[in-house]
Amino acid sequence: MIGSYEGPYFDDLEAGAVFTAPAYTLTDGRAAVHQSILGSRLPLTLDTDLATGVSGLCVADPGFVWDVAIGQSTVVTQRVIANLFYRGLAFHRLPAIGDTLRTRTEVVGLRQNASRPSGMAALRITTIDQQERPVLDFWRCAMLPLRDESIRTGHSDDLSSLGHEPDIQPLIDMLGTWDLARWAPPEGPPVEVGATWAFSSGELVSGAAELARLTLNLAHVHHDQFSRPGGRLVYGGHTIGLALTQVATALPQLITVAGWRGCDHTGPVREGDTLYSEITVEAARAVGDQGLRAVDLRVIVKARDASASRDVLDWRPIVILR
């Protein structure tokens, strides 16, 4: 296939096709570079003594884990025009530094666009560790160009019902084996339905190409300034990671992110933008037997540059608080 080393076009794909990428070991060095770009503030991933005392593990940051899994899935989407959304992301376990991740990406739906020479590819992404234990799974939808703009593929799958609500029970079961009494988290704000925190100071987007390289992200649009008419775009996980930093700042009692109910990229982000989050509690419930709560958040992120402010992200994570 001509140009296959740069990834498939939409009309090269068929439902059921499976792609794999190089395995990736979560090392201290790689985690440090990731943290330097996104500024994670999760206590159990920053303090090795605390993490090993509580869990027996040197816990990897969940944002690092999903960035690697997404990056491994880009072997399918190197030519991506836009990443439209993620659905149903759920952690089955939290890996440790030293674990190795392997990701399988399956094409589960295809729909050609009527108004432009492109199509939407729905992907099911599953990640396991070196012992073949499930780590996380989710659905992703990417828009890809056609190799032949005149072709009619006939692909017309309904992608509106893609994915399902994340099942966080396996992760809650894992946390149930931890000695969380060893951690006395800082007292955070009351977390009640309807509570909202809005940041008036933002997070600068920097190191975008470095993050893409670190996490094996092959999408041309995140590396090549001339791949799209509007120039290079920031990887969507970069925006999500900076939003997580602001969530953890607002909620210092945060243990981890258990899953995402959804995530929509509502606008492009470019290096040099500054991001501002508004965080709202949509639901909260007790889980496990150690006083934990699973909290459904909605995080709306705006990007500001020299001329304007615009919506760029609608993220709905499920976080675990103590």
Helical percent range?
A: 10-25%
Structural class of the helices, strands and pairings? Answer: alpha+beta
Give the helices and strands as they follow along the chain.
EEHHHHEEEEHEEHHEEEE
Number of domains: 1
CATH fold-level assignment: Thiol Ester Dehydrase, Chain A
How many distinct beta strands? 12
Radius of gyration: 19 Å
> Based on CA inertia axes, which overall geometry fits?
globular
**Beta content:** 25-35%
Average of the residue pLDDT scores: 94
What is the CATH class name?
Alpha Beta
| Distance separating the two termini | 53 Å
Poorly predicted sequence stretches spanning 5 or more consecutive residues: none
Output the number of helix runs: 7
CATH superfamily: Hotdog Thioesterase
Biggest sheet descriptor: 12 strands, antiparallel
What is the CATH architecture annotation? Roll
